[in-house]
Amino acid sequence: MYKARIAILISGSGTNMAALLYASKHGDCPYEVALVASNNPDAGGLKIAQAEGIATFAHSHKGMERADHDAVMDTAIRDAGADYIVLAGYMRILSDGFVHGWEGRMLNIHPSLLPKYKGLDTHKRALEAGDIHGGASVHLVTPELDDGPVLGQVEVTIVDGDTPETLAERVKYAEHQLYPRVVSEYVGREFDADWLETKVSELALALPQTHARPSHGSPGWRVGTEKTGKYFAHFSTQHHGSDAIGVLVKTGGMDELETLCEEQPEIYWKPAFYGASGWIGLRLNRSGVDWEHVTEWLERSWRGVAPKKLTKLMDVAEGF
Ligand code: GRF
Q1: Which atom, in ligand 1's list, is nearest to the CA of 175?
Q2: Does 164 sit in the ligand 1 pocket, CB within 6 Å?
């Protein structure tokens, strides 16, 4: 089973990091911890990670420009081969460039029920407002502080006599359950056949005059009318002993097919039966799929069988 590689960034005690790390020891966990990194060389969490045999990296931000420090962290994270960044009490505001470089691949946990109480002193603010619940949220990181799409939340009931400290402690317990679960769901979806099929279907049906029609029990997409349409893509889920989940598209011929499979076996495979007539498999259950590339292949395959008047319209549209 392929595991997504996550880099966890901390500044302090790192209890959420520890929760993520211990969860990753379970064989079914869809991620592994590639690196624990910090802007604080004394962060307690670094020792826990080291004791568990996880690679660590620390570089103080003191005396550095924000973007320069982010660049140092970015290099360490990429060198560790991380697919995702998981912020766990990383007390740094991130530069826009760094955030853009990890768009859709950086998660954070925040100790409030977002969109309430962005920023600091969340528990104090919840108590002062007379809220019934505090809680925690996991969200994608966008340049705006604590503002990205929320992926998961947990409510923690406020009890009589709660202080910001007692509430914070209970919220931490909740965070330690929530974070590994949400990270697993999020990074795991890229290897999930249903999620991949939905994504391919959206791209295929975005092309002109297309419709879905299963073929031999597998999803497929055709161009043209319901009556005379032709297939330009098929979805393949671990067929005939292959572990690949992916989309089959039409190549220019056997030479191209064989060359691609030989040169980039991590991306392409020659599918049983279909391969003999020039269809190639694009593997999607792997990390870092380039969806632009998938889109280009779908369009090319579509062009190969679409009626001339449609491809001409497409040429005109692309000319603008
Ligand atoms: C957590 O409360 C988290 O919500 C916030 O920072 C704190 C980190 O705590 N972003 P720890 O270092 O994981 O114990």
Answers
A1: 4
A2: no
pLDDT average, residue stretch 263-281:
95
At residue 1, the pLDDT reads 67
As a whole number of angstroms, the distance between CA 294 and CA 99 comes to 24
Is 110 among the catalytic positions? yes
Measured from the Cα of 168, ligand 1's closest atom is: 2
* Ligand 1 pocket, residue 174 CB under 6 Å: no
pLDDT of 286 reads 86
Q: Tokens 């290099």 label which residue? A: 75
* Choice among 110, 123, 139, 176 that is catalytic: 110
User: 44: Cβ below 6 Å to ligand 1?
Assistant: no
| Cβ of 111 less than 6 Å from ligand 1 | yes
Average pLDDT over residues 3-16: 96
Query: 165 alpha carbon to ligand 1 midpoint, in Å?
Result: 13
Other Cβ atoms less than 10 A from the Cβ of 241: the count is: 6
pLDDT in tens, 176-211: 999 999 999 999 988 889 999 999 999 999 999 999
Domains in the chain (CATH in brackets) are 4-191 (3.40.50.170), 193-318 (3.90.1150.30)
Residue in 106, 109, 177 to alter for ligand 1 test, most ligand atoms within 8 A of Cβ: 109
Q: Read out DSSP for 214-282?
A: -BTTB-EEEES-TTT-EEEEEEEESGGG---EEEEEE-S-HHHHHHHHHH-TTTEE--TTGGGGTEEEE
Pairing state of beta strands 245-250 and 4-10? Answer: unpaired
91-140 pLDDT tens trace: 999 999 999 999 999 999 999 999 999 999 999 999 999 999 999 999 99
